[in-house]
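hey can u check if this looks right to u? its 333 residues, i copy pasted from the old doc so theres a chance i mangled smth
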Amino acid sequence: MTQATSPSSWLARFFGAQARQKLLAFASLIALIVVFSVLKPEAFMTQDNLIGILQSTTVIGVLAIASTFVIITSGIDLSVGVLMTFCAVMAGVFIVNLGFPLPLGIACALAMGALSGCVSGLVITKLKVPPFIATLGMMMLLKGLSLLITQTRPIYFSDVEGFDQISLGSLIGDVFPSLPIPNGVLIMFVVAVVCAVVLNKTALGRYTFALGSNEEAVRLSGVNVDRWKVIIYTFAGGICGISGLLIASRLNSAQPALGQGYELDAIAAVVIGGTSLSGGVGTILGTIIGAFIMSVLINGLRIMSVAQEWQMVLTGLIIILAVYTDNLRRRQN
């Protein structure tokens, strides 16, 4: 006799194991939109502002996707924001300073991101440095390299034809003029779909979850844990390279002093989206929802003329609340 399927079990199957957290995050996103729409309807619910929110989410979203892989392994990467800047700087070096063709320069910049992630992974696995310290050191190293390479001066892409179209162009707008959605948004969603497939359908994804759930059991089963950790950090570094290209394209320049602080927004987005800091749990969909929550919140506070200092205070409180919620969820499980 077939049992009736309850709405909660249907939602659990549809949204995955973390259905309740993702639904809560999505409800929070809708609530923020409603609040700011009521308080500042003439400013918030305009097409330009909504597109601006989408555009600003691209960088945080892609960085958060990279952080998701690392955090699921129960690791942490504090270098993602500065790594983004370093990749933007290297794109400027290859394309502007060295005159590489645009596709080759982009490939080289992404390779530098993957190489930086690989170095972080090697420091963690071979030198046995805790991820927090290893990536903190990498953050300072990359920040210094970015400033040294550029001599603290921005690199401009003004003479590079098509570079600004990576983020600011609109393939959708060319077909549907009433929907000028920037290419950067499309790139973010493509990255999200690809990474969701990688996380759920490939060996890399399976080992990512396994390392976060019980690393010692994975090691005892004969898996080369160190190698997979290095691969995961390398993969995440390459994704950070994409965010570097997006922000450089949006600004049409590589700003060497930019980047620090983005890692906090990325980590907040990941945790708000339901990824556990203790590892073993997380989804790309939840992370994207979390990224939109951060973007809508920051945008709404700016529209409300809230001082930047208070924006930072609220961001910090959100991170603390998200981690506390994660702890409560783990205790209940």
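The chain has one domain: 18-332.
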